[in-house]
Amino acid sequence: MALEGAARANIGIRIMIVTVVAVPLLFALSGLAIRYAAFASVSSDTGFAAYAQALCRWDCAWYVDISEKGYERFPIPNASNVGRWGFFPLYPLLVAAIRSVLPFPTILIATITSLALSYAACLVAWPLVGKNMRAYVLYCAFLLSGPFSFHFTTFLSEPLFVLLTSCVFLALKRSNYLAAGVASALLSATRLVGVLAVFATVIHMYEEYRAKGGSIVAFPRWLLGRPDLLVAIFISPAGLFAYMLFLYLTVGDGFAFLHIQRAFGRVAGNPLLFLWDGLSYHPNAGWLPTAPQWSAMTAIAGLALCLVLGARRQYGAALFCAVSIILPLTTNLASMVRYVVGLAPLAILVAVLLSASKLTFVAALALFLAACYFMTVAWIGGYLALV
């Protein structure tokens, strides 16, 4: 009987593993079919290469240029003094490395790589959703077949950013601080806000210390006595510092990634004023919100979800997501939708909340799949809120 019980348990584990692996694969295929149908409805071209090129919108072109040409030493001529330095290097380098082995166009390689990275992000999220199958299905559907799945399946930083963010929080969940530090270092070379993951690491260290009965005032001294934890903290911004060193040696300005933002129309200001201006930008006709209104409402919704994370005692994730929204918001509302939906802890939280009942689960899943088509058409058409 004991052997029979163990055999049944092993079969159950195998079925669960197959399901966890198969669910994101299913949504990767369904999402590809839906987005291709959307592409075919607005384009006379055919083929996967044409599809990949059609989805390469806005910042995607910058990443293609970086992967193929690298970073320039001076602002690009006849381009309003714009340079590529504002786009961080890790993902373009990864695509360039793959292209050196595979003789295919950059955007084709990047599209397939983004699909693979988003698929991997789903697998990493399985323990982060508490091994809740309904939440896992919704999260996979959101990334690979959802209304914003084009962000995670073309040449943008989001696929790698989501994967590495998930790796950071999975490592923290398992108290593997060195792994969290390495993932944070890679994250900081993917996007500027990736460097903020170090605060989540320190918060988790503090929570673990307090759970063992440590006092608040003694925490710094305890931390200084743990070289392994200090290494994890100090290596977290290594990707950002390496990029700054590269810019200093090649351009002469280690902060070129910040200074070039002015050329893209990003100037520091009051985030509350940016939100107010966005909400006040009413449509000239009709009832649909304008692109600035969508961006402002998305930022507000994202910050509200951060409060929910805090209420659920996920303080590190809440702080990371809140600052990752507020920091770009201090310049303007551009790309706010992409920034918010690309925050893995928020997407995981939404999936968990919507999976609370069968009704909300089925409704959300149907909405994700239906919206994928129409949002892809809007993305290909250049709808500004989705930039």
Automatic annotation (TrEMBL):
Keyword vocabulary terms for this entry: Membrane, Transmembrane, Transmembrane helix
Superkingdom of this protein's organism: Bacteria
Transmembrane segment boundaries: 12-34, 107-129, 136-157, 177-203, 229-249, 291-310, 315-331, 337-354, 361-386
Record carries keyword Nucleus: no
Name of the protein this chain belongs to: Glycosyltransferase RgtA/B/C/D-like domain-containing protein
Species whose genome carries this gene: Mesorhizobium abyssinicae
